[in-house]
Amino acid sequence: MSINKIKAFVTAVEYGSLTKAAEQLDYTQPSISHMISSLEMDYGFSLLIRGKNGVKPTENGKALLPIMHEILKGSQLLNEMVNDINGLDSGKIQIGAYTSVCVHWMPTVLNLFNTKYPKIEVQLYEGNSQEIKLWLESGKIDFAIGTTQIDEHPHFIPLMQDRMLAILPKDHRLATCDSIPLKAFSEEPCIMPYEDSHHDVQFIFKQAKITPHIAYQIRGDEAIIAMVKKGLGISLLSELLIKEHLPELCAKPIEGNYVRTLGILTTSTVNNLSPSTKKFIPFLQDWVQENY
Predict the structure, then answer these.
(1) Where do you find CATH 3.40.190.290 in the chain?
(2) Confidence grade of residue 149 (pLDDT, cut at 50, 70, 90)
(3) Tens digits of per-residue pLDDT, 237-280?
(4) Cβ proximity of 264 and 135 under 8 Å
(5) Where in the chain is the domain with CATH 1.10.10.10?
(6) Which residue has better confidence, 96 or 292?
(7) How far is 98 from 96, CA to CA, in rounded Å?
(8) What is the CATH number of domain 1-67?
(9) Which fold has domain 160-260?
(10) In terms of Cα–Cα distance, which of 163, 203, 161 is closest to 180?
(11) The pairing of beta strand 91-97 with beta strand 143-147
């Protein structure tokens, strides 16, 4: 079994391009193509569909992807364990995180972590609730920084509570209220995220049995905030996500004082994670405790 062949295939699928896979792995494009073709010969069936607009996995390729991710993680874990035993702090971590975390936490955290552990490479993937769930299940990431609802995820390490706030144009008629009743979202035009983008928002309305009056449904957080600023409706987002925009809009607590709990999601216990990951998680915990 060739780890390099498997890595070539997985990277080509991830980027949808043989050329981009070659750039990532520091090979030539023909070398990547040859390695994948060789893997297909070894297995006896096609793994990639090659087209003018890039590449994508065949059905057989899709079926093998989760196993290949595990093989690559196992190889990486073996190398890290050997280095750890020899007293070397090196390795690679793949992290998935919400936009709010990527924007407000990770630039500072990664800079500090890289200073302390310069030989540990960190790959950061920005995604929504659904994407992070899929990345965890497929093995694409080692862990995620996101949220979970009660009893939804067995391996969840809480980091902090983040208030959910109603956001309104500064001149909105509700802007003088101390808190916003949830029923206002069924009466006022709302700018809402898609269900796969913000499970926390959907959870609040489902729990309160409120159906928002949706005027616009938007996937991007920044677009939602921009539309609220322009007076096109109200919305419900987390405090961490909107805090840099507070001078330009009105943010109010909502009835029930809902919060989301940000934390670390893994597919196994911390003891089973790689040495690099076991260094990063307490580093992040300490940073959050100091700054929030």
Answers:
(1) 160-260
(2) low
(3) 999 989 889 889 999 999 988 999 999 999 888 778 888 999 99
(4) no
(5) 1-67
(6) 96
(7) 7
(8) 1.10.10.10
(9) D-Maltodextrin-Binding Protein; domain 2 (3.40.190)
(10) 163
(11) parallel
